[in-house]
Structure formats: C-alpha cells, structure tokens
C-alpha cells in the first residue's frame, strides 16, 4: 500500500460513480460569466420571494407520491451510533474503579444532504481522531462550483488532526515515512458512500500535509501540549494557504493542474465542531451555522448559537473588512451586502479572485490549461479591486463546556437557516429525539381561515403528536420540515412534493443546497466527566 494512501485506511469503499470527479468537472458555475457574477443577488432575492408564490405554475406542474418524496429525502442520509456507550456507562456504575474519562460524550450523529444545485455544491465530513481524543464534524458550503468544498471535505480534518498531535507523535509519523514503514491511521472516517474522495489527488494532498507536520516538528518541543483553539486556527489558515500555493505551482499532470486551479478559483465556507469529552469547539469561516439544543427544566428546548455568520448582517464583520482597507474604498469594499458587490460570505477558503493580486491572477491563468480559459469567471477581475486580499479563511472559534442539559448540536449550511429560524430548528429536532412535544398556540400568521381549515390543522397536530415519526433520521426529519413547512408551521405534503419535483433550472430559484449534521450528546457521560474534572 503506498505511503500516501495509508492514512486513508478505514474508508468505506465508494460507489464507482461516486469516486470519479465527473460531477465536479462538468459543473457550470453560477458565477460563470459577468452577468452571472451579478446574478446571485437576484437569484437569492427570487429564492426569498419564491416562498410566497406557492400557486406559481412551476410548482403545480409536478407531483410526487409519498414514497417518491421519501426516496428523495432519504437518498443521502447517514447515521452513526456509538452503541457501546450504554454498556460502558453501566460498567462505570457497577465498578467504581472504572475510569470513564475516555468514554465519548457523543452518542452518535445523523446527517443528510438535499441538492438544489446540479451537482450539489455542499459537502459534509465526520471522523474520529485516532491518535488523539475527540470527534470532528463539519459542513462545507461551496460556491462557484463544488471543487473547493470537495477538497475541504477530504483535507481539513487531517490538518486539524495533525495540528493536535504532540511533538513526539509527529516525529514518529515522520520517521515512519522516512523508513517506508506503515503509518498508523490518524482518522477514522464516517462517510456516506456518495461522499467520495478524489483518489487522483491523494499524493499531492499527502505531500502538502507532510510538509506541514515537518514544520510543526521544527516549531514545537518534546512535552508541548497542543492547544485546541490554536490547532483549529492554524489548520484552517494553513490549508487555505496550501490551496493557493498548489494552484500557483501547478502540476506536471494536466488533470491535477486543472483540478488545483478549479479548487482555488472556486470557494467554500466551513463550520467545524471538535468534541472531546465536555469540551466543544466550533471553528467557523462563512455563513454556515452551529446551534446547540438545550433542554430546559420543563422539557422544552431552547437554541444556543455557537457561531456567528460572516456576512453583511454581522456589524463586526463589516467593521473588520472596512478597517483592513483604505478609507477611499469604504463605499466599494462592501456593496449590496456583498464583498466587492459579488460575494455574500465574508470569510471563505479558495476564492483566489478575492485574494491574489491582479498580476498573479493573470500569470497563473496564462500558464493554466485551456479548459480554464473557457470559464469567464476565472478571467473576470472584481470591480474596485485595489488592495487585496479582501477575503480570509481565518475561522472564528467558539468554546463551550458541555452540560448535561446540552442534548444535541445542529450544524447546517445556510440553506437550512434561510428556511427555518434557529429556535424552530431546535424545537423540531428536540421533539423528534425525545418524543416530547411542546404545545404552542396555533398560529395562522394573519391568514383568514375557515372553521373547516382550523379543524384540519388541529387534526393534523393531533395526528403528528400521537403517531410515530416516519423518519428514522433526525436530519431527514428536519429537512422535511425545512422544505415542506407551510405558513402554519406544519409539513404540507403537497408543497413538499412540488418543491422536490422542481426541475434543476428552477430548484435553485426557490432554495439552496441543504446539508445538516445532528450530533446527540450523552448527558450521563457529560455529567460524570464534569464531576471528574472538578474533583
């Protein structure tokens, strides 16, 4: 087994079609031309307005049966359960000498994806750190194609895991490579078969990662204990730097040369959770979001947001960007709530169009493959482009010490949060996981309803509370609500069917790609770990 692939042991074998790069290679970006560059603002506005036009002809042309709806919603769902936790916890109760510090606070997670773009530009990843402790979960929202998000889904967790390794382990890793010995896996991946790896790029990725850990060896000393916050920060920044350098250097392989340029010229936001016992870190760059579900004493759930959106709606982000550029650019650096009037997230990986100098962009493109010249987006220079870089992948890091009442974490791409408020997201998931339904006054949102309609709504609520859920996956259940909720806050099958049957050219006008990871915590283990730490 080649050294470069040994770190990938434990990966599920992907389906043949999923392991190819064809989905990304044939994607025509919505930023593919100058009109399209300005188009996303219109597309987003159309998406928002589209929710109120439920009687449009586009929504009435296609009807799916309930089995067909379920097939679409469940196509990309994935579940991972740590069943041994209950057994271990019982042992801890019966054997006082049992050390429960290494028992995971995570009971498991469930994830799902629903495309609006063709192909989907979102990616997701989940993995267990094998040479340190903890679990990593992340959502990556791509734009201008899926290449950058794909690269992040494969690479970022390795950079984080390496950043968390102590000096001696890094030295052992390097010694094994030098001697040609087998390497101990760093991560155990938990992936859906469709969450493929770009096999052709693994040697390139490995060499860049190895250079990074060699530098960490030089910068650290025996006995140093890595700081999680610093490790997350360095991993994000270093991977983005490597994406940029690889695109500048190119590759002897025409395919790889084209691929690294596609990764660099597309972009992606990232929201990553690192969970180790009661310690929860969120590293976020962009507008994906992480929200904690907290169970109150009365059994209801409240939302505790653990990340900030890096967009024009964040005053601190607006102030940060304006402070990094001359006063003469104050009116142009952010226009129409977008960076340079074009990009909605203010932090992202890739997107070298907003980071490189004009001279560097022209030099790289001139020496690039012919396929790249066919994409108008790569040749277009953003307006008022005077003092790059305008964009960073540096994450904002949040720490939260888990408590027994912290029951689950929802990480979602912006496609989720555009359709549901965070409190509604937490309520839906909380009720699904616990079976506890928080009865609220029936709201009709100012609409005029007949007594018959009101009776129908009440009967629907009664049926929903008394019957078993049809979804076996909390992320799927949440997705069903995100796409199918009507103005009364309940799932309307007819609306859900119509939204899922929209043709590709119309789907993106009504919603974005949606990616969801729901991580469930073990309150008993968290309580025991907090007691151990305090004693």
Notes on the protein architecture:
Residues 302-327 are annotated as: Disordered. It catalyses: O-phospho-L-seryl-[pyruvate dehydrogenase E1 alpha subunit] + H2O = L-seryl-[pyruvate dehydrogenase E1 alpha subunit] + phosphate. The protein is built from 22 helices and 15 strands. The strands form 3 sheets. Strands 3, 4, 5, 6, 7, 12 and 13 form a 7-stranded antiparallel sheet that branches. Strands 1-2-15-14-8-9 form a 6-stranded antiparallel sheet. The protein has a two-stranded antiparallel sheet with strand order 10-11. With 535 residues, it is of the alpha+beta class. The model is unreliable at 1-23, 25-60, 84-100 and 464-469 (pLDDT under 50).
Which helices and strands occur, and which strands form pairs?
Layout: H1 3-6, H2 22-25, H3 34-50, H4 57-60, H5 66-74, E1 78-81, H6 84-94, E2 106-114, E3 122-129, E4 135-143, H7 147-163, H8 167-179, E5 187-189, H9 202-219, H10 228-249, H11 254-265, E6 267-276, E7 279-285, E8 289-295, E9 301-305, H12 315-323, E10 334-335, E11 338-339, E12 349-350, H13 358-366, H14 370-373, H15 376-379, E13 396-401, E14 406-412, H16 414-417, H17 422-434, H18 451-466, H19 474-484, H20 493-500, H21 504-510, E15 514-521, H22 523-534
Antiparallel strand pairs: 1-2, 2-15, 3-4, 3-5, 4-6, 6-7, 6-12, 7-13, 8-9, 8-14, 10-11, 14-15
Helix pairs in contact: 7-9, 7-10, 7-11, 8-9, 10-11, 17-19
List the keywords.
alpha+beta; Phosphatase 2c, domain 1; 6-stranded antiparallel β-sheet; 15 strands; 43% helix; disordered N terminus; EC 3.1.3.43; PPM-type-like_dom_sf; acetylation
């Amino acid at each position: 087994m080649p050294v470069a692939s040994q770190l990938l042991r434990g990966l599920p074998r992907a389906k043949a079609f999923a392991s190819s790069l064809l989905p990304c290679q044939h994607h025509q970006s919505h930023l593919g031309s100058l009109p399209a560059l300005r188009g996303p603002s219109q597309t987003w506005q159309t998406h928002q307005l589209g929710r109120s036009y439920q009687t449009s002809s586009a929504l009435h042309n296609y009807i799916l049966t309930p089995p067909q709806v379920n097939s679409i919603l469940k196509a990309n769902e994935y579940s991972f359960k740590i069943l041994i936790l209950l057994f271990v916890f019982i042992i801890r109760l019966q054997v006082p000498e049992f050390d429960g510090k290494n028992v995971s606070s995570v009971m498991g997670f469930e994830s799902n994806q629903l495309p609006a773009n063709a192909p989907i530009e979102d990616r997701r990843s989940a993995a267990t750190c094998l040479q340190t402790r903890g679990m990593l979960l992340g959502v990556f929202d791509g734009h201008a194609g899926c290449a950058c998000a794909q690269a992040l889904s494969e690479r970022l967790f390795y950079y984080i895991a390496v950043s968390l390794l102590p000096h001696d382990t890094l030295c052992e890793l390097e010694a094994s490579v030098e001697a040609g010995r087998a390497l101990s896996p760093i991560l155990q991946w938990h992936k859906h078969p469709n969450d493929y790896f770009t096999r052709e790029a693994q040697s390139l990725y490995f060499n860049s990662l190895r250079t990074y850990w060699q530098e960490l060896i030089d910068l650290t000393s025996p006995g140093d204990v890595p700081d999680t916050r610093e490790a997350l920060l360095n991993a994000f920044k270093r991977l983005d730097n490597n994406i940029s350098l690889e695109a500048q250097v190119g590759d002897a392989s025409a395919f790889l040369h084209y691929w690294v340029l596609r990764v660099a010229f597309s972009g992606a936001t990232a929201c990553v959770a690192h969970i180790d016992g009661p310690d929860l870190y969120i590293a976020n760059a962009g507008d994906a979001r992480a929200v904690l579900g907290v169970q109150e004493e009365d059994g209801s759930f409240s939302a505790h947001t653990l990340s900030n959106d890096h967009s024009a709606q964040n005053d601190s982000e607006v102030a940060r960007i304006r402070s990094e550029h001359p006063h003469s650019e104050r009116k142009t650096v952010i226009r129409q709530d977008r960076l340079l009037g074009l990009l909605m997230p203010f932090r992202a990986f890739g997107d070298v169009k907003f980071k490189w100098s004009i001279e560097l962009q022209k030099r790289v493109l001139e020496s690039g493959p012919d396929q790249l010249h066919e994409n108008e987006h790569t040749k277009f220079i953003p307006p008022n482009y005077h003092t790059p870089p305008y964009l960073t992948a540096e994450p904002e890091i949040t720490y939260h010490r888990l408590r027994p009442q912290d029951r689950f974490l929802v990480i979602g791409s912006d496609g989720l949060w555009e359709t549901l408020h965070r409190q509604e997201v937490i309520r839906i998931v909380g009720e699904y996981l616990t079976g506890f339904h928080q009865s609220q006054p029936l709201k009709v949102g100012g609409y005029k309803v007949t007594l018959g309609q009101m009776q129908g709504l009440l009967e629907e609520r009664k049926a929903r509370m008394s019957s078993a859920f049809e979804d076996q996956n909390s992320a799927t259940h949440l997705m069903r609500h995100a796409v199918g909720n009507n103005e009364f806050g309940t799932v309307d099958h007819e609306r859900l069917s119509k939204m899922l049957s929209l043709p590709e050219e119309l789907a993106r006008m009504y919603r974005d790609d949606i990616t969801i990871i729901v991580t469930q915590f073990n309150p008993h283990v968290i309580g025991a770990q907090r007691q151990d730490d305090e004693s």
